[in-house]
Structure formats: structure tokens, C-alpha cells
Amino acid sequence: MTDKELYESLTMERKNAYLIMKDDEKSEMKKLCDEYRSFLDSGKTERECVREAEAAAIKAGFVDLDTVTSLKRGDKVYKLNRGKNIFMAVIGSEDISKGINIAGAHLDSPRLDLKQNPLYESTDMAFLKTHYYGGLKKYQWPTIPLAIHGVIYNTDGEKLELSIGEKDDDPVFVITDLLPHLAKDQMSKKMTEGIEGENMNVLIGGMPIDAEDVKEKVKFSVLKLLNQRYGITEKSFVSAEIEIVPAYKARNVGLDESFIGAYGQDDRVCAYTTLRGILDIPAPSKTAVAILVDKEEIGSMGNTGAQSAFMLMAIAEMTEKLTGSCTITELNRIVSNSVCMSSDVSAAVDPNYLSVSEERNSSYAGYGVAIMKYTGARGKYDSSDASAELVHRIGAVMDESGVIWQTGELGKIDQGGGGTIAQYVANLNMDVIDCGVPVLSMHSPFEVVAKSDVYMAYRAYKAFYMSM
Ligand code: MN
Ligand code: MN
């Protein structure tokens, strides 16, 4: 062996996935990414994504867990939680007490929620007041076309699903921003203060009705339109869940179409590839579970977040229908023997901002799916920190399955940081590791990912289900 060969055998090299992938993998990647883009276009809220996932699951032969009385090897079931979570499982051949393989992703993305009393008018223009959801840079949201999505009850007590701004002939909505000519004061502020939360008001109308005894003539005209079209009144907003999201579609990015640009890819890119993973696998030996959750961007709180008891309940119900019983001890045994891929995105190194990343340990767009031993911040705080045993096993499964993967971390030490659902799942005494797609411009209205990484995430989740 020459010294050069020895050097190569001793060192670990990172390589762009496009340089390694075979032609058939590239064409499979292209097809998967086209389908992923349509998923992004039809799912811009957690509820819409759950609906898409449920439809895809039913098409792939999954049945509602609530409707079956017993389960056997190879059966495919799903369970919904309040329209915002979906649990999917393919029953394996191995004794379930030895554990299951779970991949979990989140369906919520940073956005603007309408306040409960949102509608007002000022200077003959009507606006909707918003409260931002998740960690976003407020300056990125004015002057882009916005759509209105969500759930609202009409005066007859019927629940309506709104989606305005997505069709080509739909109107869109916008948050205005100051012209540079008059922005002297604004431009000298810190970026966190340049756009204030209470100024993120969405323009919704400007055609006053010439009604003599009515003071708010534009608000009146907007309410009249809303009432004519949807049967709603101002009071309907009090109980509504309306999300303001970018109105544009997912696009290919780059002359070579190597990237996808779209709103909501954190974490729908991992949610979609996890979903496709569980839909596309043959009967596994260990029972395979995919869970798509809500509320990750605000701490995984509440009954639809990863901290909810829903997942445990679904596992217990599934086990009971499979084996005839599921005591607390049996449930704890299953959970403790299980492994979870926390399918969430990582930060891709941005060449415009190299100084925030540590080049040897950050993930790069196009270098494959990123496997992160830990996330967190300030000395691994809030990180579940996967064990050597788990990282070793996962790495071996990826290598054996031909998955191109890289390590990742969320930026340089003390530069910031963040968490995922991993810590909450790990608290159940499960082995958990973060695994997902590196993203550029994360949490912006137009996040960018490399198609090769989307494809490798899909391959990674499938390999996890089949070989872990
Ligand atoms: Mn995420
Ligand atoms: Mn996020």
C-alpha cells in the first residue's frame, strides 16, 4: 500500500452526493422531488399536511386503527389526532416487546397566525392583525405575496376550511413595508427591531362602501364579502385558527435544478420523506412507525405536539390489538427497546455566512442526509445526545444500505443553537438520534434544500425501517 492509499484508508472524506450517485438513483431522485414539490403545494399547514398524509396512507393500503379489532404481521394502520397528528405503522414479524422503529417529523412551520380579533381599518385600508408563530426573522415577511389558510366556523356552526391565495386567479395578501426614502430611522435600528410584531398587519381590503351611517366603511365592505362568501362574521375569528403563509408554489432552483426552494421545508422535507419511507417499505421484521407531529416550532407543547401522550396511546392500542394486551409494564418495555429517528432538518453551511459554522462538523447542502448526535445550545443544553452505541449502529445501517450521509451540528459553539423533538422522545427512555436534510435559509419564507439530500433522507428512513 502506498502512503497515499494508506492516508485515504485512514481518513474520512466528505463528498458531494451528486458525484457518487448512479444514474438510476438520480432519476429516482428527480421523480421523488417532483412528488415532494406537489406535497408542499397542497400542504401549507399542519392540518393540510395531515390530510395529504392520510390520503396517501389510505391509497397505500393503510386502514384506520380505530376500525380494526385485531392486527397481524404485515398489517398497515394509521391513527389521527385532532387533524394535526398522524401515527402510521406497519406491523413487523418480530415480537413487538423487542421494540419498534419510529421515525418522527413535524408538520408545523414558522408562520403568522391571525389574532382572535384581527380585523380593523385605518386610512381607508382594512388589515388583519397577526401574531407570529415560531422563530422567524420578521423582516423577511413584508412585501411577499401571502395566502390565508385555516379553520373557521360560520354562523350556522359549520366548520369551514379556508384557502385563499393559492389558485392563479385568487387574490393574495401582503404586509407593507416602508419605502427606503422614508426609512432613515427604521434602517438604523437593529434587525430584530426593524419590523415590529405589532406592525405585521396583513392588507385585506380597500374598497369602502358608501353607507352613510357606517363609520368603518372598508371594514364593513370586507365583512360583507366574508359573510357573502363564507357565512362568517367578525365573531367567527374568535375561535378560528387561521395561518398566513407565503402564497407561492415550490420551485426548482438553479439552472441545473439541483435545489428546491419553498416555504415550510422545515420540517415537511423530513415529514414527506418519512411518510414515503413508511409507505414504500415491504413488511419489515421490526414494527415500523412514522409519527408526524405539530407544535415543534413552539416547544413541542400541547396535545398535538411531541410531548403529548398521543404516541404512547397509539402504540398501546396497536399492541393490544396485536397481542391481546398492553399493560403499563409491557408498554414501557416496548418503548425502552425502541429506536427513534428524529427526522428534522439541520442547518446547511451558507457560504455567505461561513463564520457561523465550524467547517469540519457542519452539514453541507448536497452532501447527503445529516445524522446529528446532538443538537441543543450553550454546552449541549436541551440535547438528548445519542449514545456511541446508537450512532455506531445507525452509521453501519446507512453504510450497508448505500445511503450517502454526513454529520451535522447547529453552527459554531455559542453561536446559537436549537432543539428538535429528540429530547422529548428520549425522555421516554428510547434511543433517539436526529437525522434529516440540511436547509439553507431555514425558517425563511423560501427555504432551500438540495435534491440529493431529499433523496438520501428518503433512503435513510427506509434503511432505518428495514435494517435497524
Ligand atoms: Mn424542524
Ligand atoms: Mn424549525
Structural class: alpha/beta
Number of domains: 2
Strand order of the largest sheet: 1-2-3-13-4-14-20-16-18
Using the 3D structure, state the CATH architecture of the largest domain.
Answer: 3-Layer(aba) Sandwich
Q: Whole-Å distance between the termini?
A: 35 Å
Instruction: Name the average pLDDT.
Output: 96
Radius of gyration: 24 Å
CATH superfamily of the largest domain: Zn peptidases
**Main sheet: strands, sense, barrel:** 9 strands, mixed
Name the bound molecules.
manganese (II) ion
Residues in helices, as a percent range: 25-40%
Detail the poorly predicted runs.
none
Q: Which percent band covers the strand fraction? A: 15-25%
CATH topology (level 3) name of the largest domain: Aminopeptidase
Query: Helix tally?
Result: 13
What global shape is seen? Answer: globular
Quick one: how many beta strands?
22
Please identify the top-level CATH class of the largest domain: Alpha Beta
